[in-house]
Amino acid sequence: MSSLFGNILKGWTDYTKGIEEGGHHEYEHMWGMVIDLDKCTGCNACSVACYAENNIATVGEEKYVARQSMQWLRVERYFDEPDIDPGAIDDENAMQERGASFLPMMCQQCNAATCEPVCPVAATYHTPDGLNAQIYNRCIGSRYCANNCPYRLRVFNFYSYTDENGAWPEPMKQQLNPDISVREKGVMEKCTFCIQRINAAKDKAKMENRQVTEGEVKTACQQTCPTQAIMFGDLLNPESKVTQAWVRQQIKLGKYKQDRENPTLRGYRIFEELNTDPSVLYLERVREE
Amino acid sequence: MVVVLVGAIIVIAAQILDQKLHYTSTDVVPGPIVPGTQYPDEAFTGIDVPQPIDFSHKIHAGDNEINCMFCHTYARRSKVSGIPPLSKCMGCHTVIATEKPEIQKLTAMWEKGESPQWNKVHDLPDFVHFTHQRHLKRFLFDNQELDVSDAKRVCSMCHGDIAEMTVAKKSRPLTMGFCIRCHEANEGPSDCTKCHK
Questions:
Q1: Do A181 and B11 touch (CB under 8 A)?
Q2: Is residue A54 within 8 Å of A180, Cβ to Cβ?
Q3: Chain A within 8 Å of B79 (Cβ-Cβ)?
Q4: Are A157 and A70 in contact (CB under 8 A)?
Q5: Where are the domains of chain A?
Q6: B196: nearest CA in chain A?
Q7: How many cross-chain Cβ pairs, A to B, lie less than 8 Å apart?
Q8: pLDDT tens digits, residue range A65-89?
Q9: Strands A230-234 and A31-36, how do they pair?
Q10: Secondary-structure class of domain A27-79+99-283 per CATH
Q11: What pLDDT was estimated at residue A22?
Q12: DSSP type of residue A227
């Protein structure tokens, strides 16, 4: 009996705390990311690294056009000046004067994730690390989560890529990462912030009876980024670079509208106004006028 | 008044249901084998796995009391426990029991430079992350009441009484339920991503 009232009381305190101080969660860690778009050159190295680290199948051109690609991390292009000079439109070499802006999009690990409550089998859930995890062998492939994700960052295995004619023909099977499962068809998959690396770091820290330190976990995209545009760390650790960037940009968790004193700050979170409370902070690209 | 009464009944019923839903296992036994722990005592009869050499765990770990980690050296350092290289066998068997037919098979392999192709007995699915290292630290090295020389008691929690077997055979189910019952009893992590990768 006591446990029930204990649960009610705990639920109530959590609820009130969540209202008073936005984004209150009882997490062990809270992994977050900061991506500086000013540094991003759009080289797609992060995307390639993600393919290599997470055993993502390459699907080929046909299926890519049919929107069945399985990128966990895509680099989107945006053009500030959408119109080329109308006179030069037939010219092959015509291009916008200032080129594109790039936006690397990986799972935003929302703290109020829209994908989680719709899963009929609870294959996607929030971990005590503040991550939005997907348990592949539990997934039945209903695809509700992908349809409910405002960012379109969940990908579905439409085909089996593990056979001989798949993404890894015979000698290439050697390159698969053993720390993460190879997904079969009919399974939804998504960016996990390289959870295998996080778990490895946590295991190592526990073996040495200490906490995971700042900079110990590096995601594959962060490790590969040639301009170091991606930062990754624990948002609960006040010392970490990521927390400091969040504080500097005056972005707070648990809010759908930031009240910042300084409107010239570059930080923003994508689709914040939908109240998904994402853990990835982007620093806007500033260009000369 | 009625509303309060109905509410109270619902709350109490929910509480009883909640307790029913939580698995209270009867087969989690306090371990006399490993002090300070509890573990599920489920039996399972595995199939006979044929091995190239009829290696007897009984002679090595049972009768001669060789520590499990003498041969399975990687158990305390990594995810897998590891199969010893043939050179480790030959370290003893150049002098010990050389007249036995199984040892002569072993010597023939050693001279040809082959290694025996052992077959896997305890095979977890590919989507499971299991590390021997963490489990040994929790139950053996951090366990004040247990000496390191008694490693086989800890191993027997999941592998059964290997020291009494000739060719090893799976004798615990090693299902998710088996893992979870032990994790609940010993307050191990219950997060899905801890084991599922």
A1: no
A2: yes
A3: no
A4: yes
A5: 27-79+99-283
A6: A135
A7: 52
A8: 998 889 999 999 887 665 666 666 6
A9: antiparallel
A10: alpha beta
A11: 63
A12: T
